[in-house]
Design goal:
With 264 residues, this protein is α/β, with parallel strands linked by helices. 49% of the residues lie in helices and 11% in strands. It is built from 13 helices and seven strands. The longest helix has 22 residues.
């Protein structure tokens, strides 16, 4: 039998992540989906926050085809803009800032949160200063917190925040993206360190499973969401009209974040 090459070994590891998610995460995922559906059904928002590559699941949830309003991405470019890697807006600066305790609260103060809102915080390690700030700040504001981490990586990482807590200590519900400690999954003969990170596979699977559960729950409540839908499925005119209605709906939902007019 021919030995699997590095690409096949990555696929094997990625498939194992999906199997692990199926085997271990469905109960917590269903609980998280109920929290999100309850928030959206009552006119609240599901806020989404992540730094570095943990921005990927935030953007995967909304806006894109097959997604719908009710989720509010909080994207801080100083923590996520890696296009230049070095120089202005470089990766060193982003990595420094994501560890900076107190910065998360500065970010949260830009918004007026409502009584039905909840917060999802994505962090593979679950220990850096900004994500702990955001999770603690959300709890202090009365929001349920859903943490999404690599449990292996989080438990294997030293605590860095002065609170002495990891994201898993703060979250009401923790979802595990089932990627390994260190994230990279493939060893190559003659290469000192492994390559091929797996957390993005787990992140994307979890958030799309969540999205499907929330859409189902809202529809069962008689509040079917407006879903961004490709023109290849419904035609260009219908797709464009639906995009406009969906973005208008999103704009109306987030307007109170800045005006302060939130319903009790």
């Amino acid at each position: 039998m021919t030995q699997a090459d590095a690409a096949e070994r990555y696929l094997d590891a990625a498939e194992q992540i999906l199997r692990d998610i199926r085997a271990t995460q469905l109960p917590a995922l269903r609980q998280a989906a109920q929290i999100c559906a309850e928030s959206i059904a009552k006119g609240g928002l599901v806020h989404l926050f992540g730094t570095g590559h943990s921005r990927i699941p935030v953007e995967e949830i909304f806006p894109r085809h097959g997604s719908f309003p009710g989720f509010h991405p909080i994207i801080e470019l100083s923590l996520t803009n890696h296009t230049q890697v070095v120089g202005n807006n470089g990766q060193r600066q982003a990595m420094y800032l994501e560890k900076l305790e107190g910065f998360g609260e500065i970010i949260l103060r830009n918004f007026i949160f409502g009584p039905h809102d909840c917060m999802m915080v994505f962090s593979n390690s679950g220990v850096n200063g900004v994500v702990i700030d955001v999770a603690l700040g959300a709890k202090q504001r009365g929001m349920p917190v859903i943490g999404v981490v690599s449990l292996a990586h989080c438990q294997g990482s030293p605590v860095k925040h002065s609170s002495g807590m990891r994201l898993t200590d703060i979250a009401d519900i923790t979802l595990d993206n089932c990627s390994p400690l260190g994230d990279a999954m493939v060893t190559v003969d003659g290469l000192e360190h492994p390559v091929g990170p797996g957390s993005s596979i787990g992140y994307v699977a979890l958030v799309n499973m969540l999205k499907c559960l929330v859409a189902d729950a809202l529809t069962q409540r008689g509040q079917p969401p407006l879903v961004l839908t490709s023109s290849t499925l419904i035609g260009s005119a219908a797709s464009a009209e639906l995009f406009d209605r969906t973005y208008d709906d999103f704009r109306a939902r987030i307007a109170p974040l800045y005006s302060g007019r939130r319903e009790d």
